[in-house]
Amino acid sequence: MNPSSEVTSRDDIFKYAKEQYGTEPEYLWMKFPTYAILRHHDNKKWYGAVLNVPKSKLGLLGEGSVEILDVKCDPVIIGSLRMKEGILPGYHMSKGNWITVLLDGTVEKNMVFSLLDESFRLTGKQ
């Protein structure tokens, strides 16, 4: 984690989604009450998922869990994005079209929001 980076919280993401797109998080799973998805009003497609998963499930070292954001991404740039610290293959999503962003301060807040914007665009009505 980059100590100079500000951690992007789930609340930051939900506030941004509400302000930019008028969407609220949805909690779909009783087994995982903190897992939230963000979806379009019109086509009901997901454009983001905020989850708290064990580090081991992501191939990360250490104990405990980490908060993540899954977003859809242009397959052309996924490879270069995944070379950046804090960006991993999509967790529980198509790894060719989705990425996982660690919400631990590794990825700058403006980059997190930019990736959410791109996911919203890619999952919108075509």
Structure explained in plain terms:
This protein is of the alpha+beta class and 126 residues long. It has helices spanning 10-21, 75-82, 109-123; strands at residues 36-39, 46-54, 65-72, 87-89, 98-102. It has a 5-stranded antiparallel beta sheet with strand order 1-2-3-5-4. Strand 4 and strand 5 (98-102) form a beta hairpin. The radius of gyration is 14 Å and the shape is globular.
Concise overview:
This protein is of the alpha+beta class. It contains three helices and five strands, in the order H-E-E-E-H-E-E-H. It has helices spanning 10-21, 75-82, 109-123; strands at residues 36-39, 46-54, 65-72, 87-89, 98-102.
The pLDDT mean sits at 91
Low-confidence sequence ranges = none
What would you call the structural class? alpha+beta
| Total E-strand runs | 5
Question: Main beta sheet: strand number and arrangement?
Answer: 5 strands, antiparallel
* Adjacency order of strands in the biggest sheet: 1-2-3-5-4
- Shape annotation: globular
Order of helices and strands: HEEEHEEH
What is the percentage of strand-forming residues?
15-25%
Q: Share of helix among residues?
A: 25-40%
Distance between the first and last residues' Cα: 37 Å
SS element count, helices: 3
Gyration radius (Cα, Å) is 14 Å
SSE topology:
Blueprint (H helix, E strand, L loop, with lengths): L9 H12 L14 E4 L6 E9 L10 E8 L2 H8 L4 E3 L8 E5 L6 H15 L3
Antiparallel strand pairs: 1-2, 2-3, 3-5, 4-5
